[in-house]
Design a protein that fits this description.
The protein has 237 residues and is α/β, with parallel strands linked by helices. It has one domain: 3-Layer(aba) Sandwich (Rossmann fold), CATH 3.40.50. It is 30% helix and 23% strand. It is built from eight helices and 13 strands. α2 packs across α3. The chain is globular. The termini are close together.
């Protein structure tokens, strides 16, 4: 049986449905996994139920994590938060992390990973990171290459691509400031912003600040990230 990969979804309270971008679903299918969407969880026993069903887990992109989660007051650039989503995903991450379930965090997912592990975020990269280059362009689609990132040799992330530099999209205004525990930097933008992290121990846990699932439409090499997750999920059974 193919590995089952859970993908976190977002409760769109105004429209009354749980949403997830179909790019995540397509990426998991293409990588050889079976994707399932995980709705907002409120009960402790339900976290365990989902963790026992899945073999790997993707924390999807989305709105900002509340700065209160890392001990800061919000800046005016914080436009949308959901404490409900924060609680749900941090609770799910807690169970998955303690079980050493293979994890991939994408954009917000990387930020959530870092906050759970005691790190902090730039609430707005372009205002808070000295010498910041372009991030989150207003009129460029998410499928476009936007800037290069530098992959660190000796990391699992570098091994996936076997390249020192790749071009990625940029669809975020936040990023890692203080790095969380048990994380190591796997890639940096030219301005020093962290663009990928991974576990410092031997578990499969990768976080990327860009959106590989959207790049797949034009750049099949980004399937390697999802193939890595699916393979780790298969091996972890």
């Amino acid at each position: 049986m193919k590995p089952i990969i859970g993908i976190t979804s977002f409760d769109e309270q105004v429209q009354g449905y749980h949403s997830i971008n179909n790019n995540y679903v397509n990426a998991v299918f293409a990588a050889g996994g079976i994707p399932i969407s995980i709705p907002t969880i409120k009960n402790e026993e339900d976290y365990e139920a989902y963790i026992n069903i899945i073999d790997g887990l993707i924390f999807s992109g989305g709105i900002d994590i509340s700065p209160l989660r890392y001990g800061e007051n919000p800046l005016k650039e914080i436009k949308r938060i959901s404490t409900i989503r924060d609680e749900y995903e941090l609770g799910l991450f807690d169970k998955a992390y303690k079980k050493k379930l293979p994890i991939l965090g994408i954009c917000r997912g990387l930020q959530l990973m870092n906050v759970y592990l005691g790190g902090s975020l730039f609430q707005d990269v372009n205002n808070q990171l000295a010498g910041s280059l372009g991030h989150c362009p207003e009129y460029i689609t998410i499928e476009e290459d936007y800037h290069p990132i530098n992959l660190r040799k000796g990391t699992r992330f570098h091994d996936l691509f076997n390249k020192d530099k790749i071009n990625v999209n940029s669809y975020h205004h936040q990023g890692i400031n203080r790095l969380g525990e048990n994380l190591q930097v796997a890639a940096l933008a030219d301005d020093g912003l962290v663009e990928a992290v991974e576990a410092a121990d031997d578990r499969f846990m990768i976080g990327v600040q860009f959106h590989p699932e959207a790049l797949l439409k034009r750049r099949p090499e980004f399937l390697k990230i999802f193939e890595g997750l699916v393979m780790a999920a298969k091996d972890n059974r």
